[in-house]
Amino acid sequence: MEELIKNAKSGDKGAFTKAVQSVKEELNNIAKTKVRNEEDIEDIVQNTIEKGFLKLKQLRNNKYFKTWIIRILINECNKFYELKNKEEKLVEKCIKDIRDTTIYEMEIGRIEFEDRIKDLDKLDKEIMNLHFEEKYTINEIAEILKMNPNTVKSRIDRGKKKIKSKYEKTIITVIILCILTTGVVLGISSLINYLKSIFDLSSIGQNNDGILMAIEEKEWYENIEMDYINLNENYRIKIDYMILDDINLYLIFNLESSENIQQYNRISILDLEIVDEQGNVIWCQENWNDEYIVKLNGYKGIENNEYNIKELVYMIADGYPDFKELKIKFSKILLYSTDNKCQTTYEIQTEQKKEIKIEINEKYINVEKIRYEQYKNESKNFNVKRAIITPTGFYAIISYNGGGVKAVLIDEKGNEYVCGRELMNIDDEYNNNYYVITAHISDRTNERLILRINNEEAELIKK
Q1: What is the pTM of this model?
Q2: CB under 8 Å to 445, separation ≥6 — which residues?
Q3: What is residue 99's DSSP assignment?
Q4: What is the maximum span of the chain, computed from C-alpha positions, in angstroms?
Q5: N or C: at which end does the chain have fewer Cβ atoms within 10 angstroms?
Q6: Could you give the count of Cα atoms lying within 13 Å of 111 in the half-sphere of its Cβ?
Q7: pLDDT, tens digit, for every residue of 377-436?
Q8: What are the residues facing 266 on neighbouring strands?
Q9: Is residue 458 within 8 Å of 412, Cβ to Cβ?
């Protein structure tokens, strides 16, 4: 056996085949104790053999080949059950989301109206046709057919339920097949709830309430829909979602491993660089952008399991430049654990610098924003450099001589909004600190606003 493995490591596929044949029956027997379906067993064993061949050079001692490949098999079995459980939970959740949303109406709407009502009785067909096709109101239909309006309404409701019930099984089956074959969840509420769960954390972002509102009401996010890019033979990565406005940039990274990485729960990109299509630097780990004050707020763990880690990278800026494409570059990613501080970190090295290109959505390029300028300020300690309201809330960049900032925003009606604040940069030369001040304010009609910093006020007027 040891000689076969030695030859296999040198590229002799025949030697590897012979080595596998000697243990294949045992692999099948072990798989049968863990998985019942014959087709699944065959797939698991085949995946084990393929991974064994690809990772053979990682086997340190050739005499332990059998133990080593059995361990790969067990990992594949565990991975199979994990994916199966995920699918079952996903399907169960998706069905619930479907029943809680208008997905039926979306799907049924693609079926010809005559086909939808063909199984209803004659009177119900006439009522449904008058209401949905001819656009008559319930009272108008009642007058035309000489019926009680309540009776018309109940017949419309009953007809809708019959149509919904008839197509329910077909629609759910189609959606489930779509999930299992493409991994795409059609129910928009699932995605929104997922993103809201990420941003509903006090340690994330400068204006959580505003971001939550924008996600829910304006679908203010971008599903990147990219394929994984390989880092090396064991790791690959992609970006799942992005949120961007005039101040904030959020990127959700998704790292996948072919090995069990459950001992880690976080990732950090050590040499992150972000540039636009013209080569202008938005963010660089080593160099500050001279034109814009940009701060990387950091990383936040989103989700992790045996084979995946999802991480949010977020930053703020004193206004981002106009760009139509982002290029995210990196070559080093660190795996670490916050649960076990004694756990040794692991650095993923790539052969060359990787680059992910993201085309910027039109809604981000032409961000709808209201600008304010400093109109009156008797304070000697702070100045408002920039003040705007974007789809995700109110933001102001201020320079402040000192520390301990407490901010309140006051609208024209006298309503006060407690503000968040984040230190962006320190100007040692002039003894000024730069802060971003944030508030969730939905009323966009205010001509004037008051920004109170500690006990001093500045009046802001709409440009």
Answers
A1: 0.58
A2: none
A3: H
A4: 93
A5: C
A6: 17
A7: 877 788 998 899 988 889 998 888 876 788 999 999 898 888 888 887 776 555 678 888
A8: 336
A9: no
